[in-house]
Amino acid sequence: MRMSRLFFETLREVPAAADTPSHQLLLRAGLVHQVAAGIFEFLPLGLRAKRKIEAILRQEMERIDGQEVQMPVVHPAELWQRSGRWYAIGPDMARLKDRNDRDLCLGMTHEEPVTDLAASMVRSYRDLPFMVYQIQTKFRDEPRPRAGLIRVREFTMKDGYSFHRDFADLDAYYPRVYEAYYRMFRRCGLEVVAVASDTGMMGGTMAHEFMALSPIGEDTLLLCDACGYKANRQIALFRKPQLQADPPAALEEVHTPRCASIEDLAAFLSVSPEKIVKAVFMVGKLAVEGDDQQAQERLIVACLRGDMELNETKLANALKCRGLRPAHDSEIRAAGIEPGFGSPVGMKAGAAIVIADDLVPAMSNFVCGANKADYHLRNANYQREFAAAVVADIAAAAEGHACHACGQPLRSVRGIEVGNIFKLGTKYSAAMGAAYLDEKGASHPIVMGCYGAGSDRVLASVIEEHHDEAGIQWPVSVAPYELVLVSLVSPGKEEEKLVEDVYQKLAAAGVEVLYDDRNERAGVKFNDADLLGFPLRLTAGPKGLKTGTLELKIRRTGEVRPVPIDQVVEAARQALDEEWALLKGMLDQPFPPM
RNA sequence: CGGGGCGUAGCUCAGCUUGGCUAGAGCGCUGCGUUCGGGACGCAGAGGUCGCUAGUUCAAAUCUAGUCGCCCCGACCA
């Protein structure tokens, strides 16, 4: 490709709308163009990189016997009504009507169509197992798109679905997917970790999220360097301290003016937050037995040791509730509780569900709210002053907490979720009638797994991980071009033929070469080459050409090698091999166990 | 949906507080010339309904109200 003809632009200045490195570089390098919040156009260079990522995803899916299909972006409501998600999902789903006033929606994911597809085609256990996947556009009307391609509304996802006759077969297949996922991200030059994740509203038993570690990541992960435990903060376990029980002392009311926060209170009373029980007030819909539609909103009083934070995912799972939100002060007062000085002690009976973190019953003589403005209680004790309807682990793990498995301190890092794999089970097959007949003629719902990976998000994550001050440093596997040939010869000069010849030779040898034949100054071309981040830059200047020499520069290392003009193909090949070897090295590292 | 910020030339921004005359700069763009290995220089140019709509006023980029859009923090994230 000749750069003089390439549809692109590079921006010298950082666009005001972009904060994160990948967002800035995506725009500055002319890879994408934003159309609306969370909706982007891919320009030629960006699309080439994305296509390379997708090619890798395809290859890894084929390796584990995936077969590519394509499902629609627009779905009839009926599919989602059958699974129940038409009603369960809120405004994140874009809904529309066709000319006959039929309800449609834009696919946020494809469990429904794929399950329907399986329902219509699978009859016998002999048809199982199989896995189909697609690379398709999804639309989720995110409340807040952000960080360029990291969180968008319209995006491309590789999503795969496997179908099995029983859990044992799914369990046997799942590790193959796990390994394929490590392979595909590493082949893209992304260092990822798989963490155990919440199964949430998707239903299912086991799930892993593949996380690209990055400070701009939206998820918090807890990792144990000692034993290898890894989990999303949403479900991360930790070992609670062993407390020794002091003999109960007499309850005492203390005046604590303006001490509505744990910090203030601890400072005012000169006690450690570990001697305080705090109450967090939430409202959530609790499912009424057997009828999901009748879910009632209830006030939830969650009690935790003062130094710990509530983990809403754990809370939601413990109470089997959804739609959790912080309670309004009026709702709290209605239960006879004073916001800022609240506790279950003396609250209106039955006005709220009290849930305590499992550390709370082990505490003794603690401080808690008196449900009276500017007053707290000292020497409160569990059971004596209050008891919870539910005791469960609802505290969020944090940096420094003890690993639940080995007791060593956990480390907290941020991650971008680039993929997730999921044992779905029979949630969708049962709801949508995807069943098969076994050897004895008995009907069973098909057991499913689902496996997603966002190609745009991978692209952004690769840039997050591979860039410097000057621009992108593409891993060779996803670079839009492998090499940029920079001509410093003035157009029309005799030497231009030599450079042209080099271009032809490289292209004929199968090197993906972008030929910078523009009539620009050297500085402009070099800066663009750095910004665009091709792994190799081959410079042909008038001085060098006199002695038949070009200059090969490695973007990643900055290393410069002189190359005789008759050896450019070999030199490029060798340098590219070195780049590929680097990725191969990553790929050959053992994968962390599940 | 709560909180904050921003909409002026293709890009980055100044001007707005204290209303006033042809609305500015840098970069980019066009033409000519000189340059030519890390974002050159000179000369000449093109380019803006100041997001939109109402209002106040003799007069609005500037004040007021509304509205749309974008960004950031939070909530949400199937």
Please provide a written account of the structure.
With 594 residues, this protein is of the alpha+beta class. Strands 3, 7, 8, 9, 10, 11, 12, 23 and 26 form a nine-stranded mixed β-sheet that branches. It has a five-stranded mixed β-sheet with strand order 17-15-16-18-21, with helices on one face. A five-stranded mixed β-sheet has the order 30-29-31-32-33, with helices on both faces. A hairpin with a 5-residue loop joins β5 and β6. The model has no long low-confidence stretch (mean pLDDT 90). It binds one RNA strand of 78 nucleotides through α13 and α14.
Percentage of residues in DSSP E strands:
25-35%
* Rg over alpha carbons: 29 Å
Distance between the termini: 44 Å
Low-confidence stretches: none
Helix count from the secondary structure assignment: 15
Structural class from helices and strands? alpha+beta
Global shape: globular
Strands, total number: 33
Query: How much helicity do the residues have?
Result: 25-40%
Indicate the mean pLDDT. Answer: 90
User: Sheet with the most strands?
Assistant: 9 strands, mixed
